[in-house]
Amino acid sequence: QVQLQESGPRLVKPSETLSLTCTVSGCSITSYYWSWIRQSPGKGLEWIAYIYHSGNTDHNPSLKSRVTISLDTSKNQFSLRLNSVTAADTAVYYCVRHQSNDRGSYDYWGQGTLVTVSS
Amino acid sequence: IQLTQSPSSLSASVGDRVTITCRASQGVSTYFAWYQQKPGKAPQLLIYAASTLQSGVPSRFSGSGSGTDFTLTISSLQPEDFATYYCQQLGSYPRTFGQGTKVDIK
Fold it and tell me: What is the structure's pLDDT at B26?
């Protein structure tokens, strides 16, 4: 049974870096594409970035260059770093698995973690 | 690519046929998906490749369309179907979602 679990600080101060990790169980992280999605009341669902074990990555241009996504095959985990956060980055963050290739729909989601940006 | 989903909300009764539409600002072929989200839960995949039912999803859900116009239909609304539905395009980056359609009880 495939499961994804987000972990990381729930409270981040403005201008600091948000860091989240997604731990995957039930499948190999090298077999699929992976993304981070976030959901805030003001902007709905927003795709943040994707990664594949080959090193392929991409991120949403709306986040400029604040995003870093990485993958640790030894731990079957992938991670998100978002720097210079503001209150607008407050959201529920989800990690997801792509169904097949990078154009695959998201067939497995983590439960989501609420990250609040506040001093 | 902008996705315009309509309606933004609707009220319906158990047994009703419900149709939600989503229009893309550019063609995305059939790289299109629909998700259902219940309060406090992560979205769940219903339909992928515009019209393929995800494993385990009841057959009362169906999807159609290609290019710029897509439809999600629930043939006979059940109590567990009251939720918010989102469309998503996977035809180009950045991936984008519709703003959601909330289906509640009439």
Answer: 97
